[in-house]
Structure formats: C-alpha cells, structure tokens
Amino acid sequence: MFDDQISLIMFLIIYTLFIFYLNYLQNLGIVKNDVDNLTCNPLTLILDSVSNSDSGSKRFEGCVKKIK
Description:
Layout: H1 2-33, H2 35-39, H3 42-51, H4 53-67
Helix pairs in contact: 3-4
C-alpha cells in the first residue's frame, strides 16, 4: 500500500509539472506573435523607465507616435 501512495504522489507531481510546461509553451507562443502590442503595454513602459530612463522615454515616444 505504501508503494501505491508513492506512485500516486510521483504521478501527480509529474502531471502538474507537465501542465505548467504546456502553459509556459502556450504563453511563449502568444508573446512571440504579439511583441508589438506587448512593448507598448503601460506596465512594460513603467518597468523599462525605472530600469533605464533613456530607453524607456524613447520607447514611450515610439508608442505615442504609433498610436497617432
């Protein structure tokens, strides 16, 4: 009986990791196909401006010009 419990726990761990991996691949495909919209995302612009002010302001100007 103890072996069955270990097998079940191992199966559940592997199954859960597999589901996380499939979700990661799906999100990676979405990001690769929609890079232009993600670069003009307000959260991305804020994080970019905090880390590097020159790059953030240039990207913001590019996004504003693209919208106009």
